[in-house]
Amino acid sequence: MxxxxxxxxxxxxxxxxxxxxxxxxxxxHLTHAAISLQIKQLEEVCGTLLFERIGKRVFLTEAGEILxxxxxxxxxxxxxxxxxxxxxxxxxxxxxxxxxxxxxxYFAPGLLAQFRQTHxxxxxxxxxxxxxxxxxxxxxxEVDLAIMGRPPPALDATAVAFAPHPLVIVAGVxxxxxxxxxxxxxxxxxxxxxxxxxGSGTRSAMEEFFxxxxxxxxxxxxxxxxxxxxxxxxxxxxxSFLSQHTLGLELSAGRLSILKVEGTPVMRRWHIVRHKxxxxxPALAAFWDFVxxxxxxxxxxxx
Length: 303
Known about the structure:
Elements: H1 6-18, H2 21-28, H3 32-46, E1 51-54, E2 57-60, H4 62-88, E3 94-101, H5 108-118, E4 122-129, H6 131-139, E5 145-148, E6 157-172, E7 193-196, H7 201-212, E8 219-223, H8 226-234, E9 239-243, H9 248-252, E10 256-258, E11 266-275, H10 282-300
Parallel strand pairs: 3-4, 3-5, 7-8, 7-9
Antiparallel strand pairs: 1-2, 5-11, 6-9, 6-10, 6-11
Helix pairs in contact: 1-2, 1-3, 1-4, 2-3
């Protein structure tokens, strides 16, 4: 392993996390051929296969799983060393990798912009995906922290709630239910629901809401984007269950209406989450404290 390069370990770690050379290439802005070549060269150094292909899927071999554990430790040690040297030099900068669930993309850039006003030399990498992927990024130490709804119980994490998160049922402004002052879940029985994909925190909250009321929703469409869902609802294709923090523009423009359904809004909490073993660099500690102090008032303006 002494002949393995840091770049090879970086590429291997990303490819192993995605279990896809194509997604690794996209993530690292490399070609598929470049990823394959680096993995092949690393396998030659190791003297064994690190991946195996079964049908159309890629899996880690036993050797690959062992190497992945050590590769992540090596890459994290290098990152920690970099941050420690920056601190030793008295520099105020640093790097932070932040993952947010897709619903939080409506306020996360604004938070980052406010943070950069006082920490302009901190470099921030922002990743946006659904809850399942954000959990995987945290568990594999590919990001320093995450902003999400309910933190994953299986992760050994430090999670702090910092703001309320209301979820509501919406319809187009011309929908018949939009003019009714009081609705029950039974009134929604014949309405077509447009929902987020499985693995989304919004989808989980929606399923829990209907399950608690012993009602099976009529799901007509599934979409992986809040924006697509909102446009579908505006077009009259159905109603939806969404975070109120995603609705600012459509509500102010009079294109969507929040239905007055009994039991809504469903109140959740936004959390900032990091792995318990995560080393708090000065930059990471500053961002963590900033979110806890500034975000509550910032999010109140969005509802």
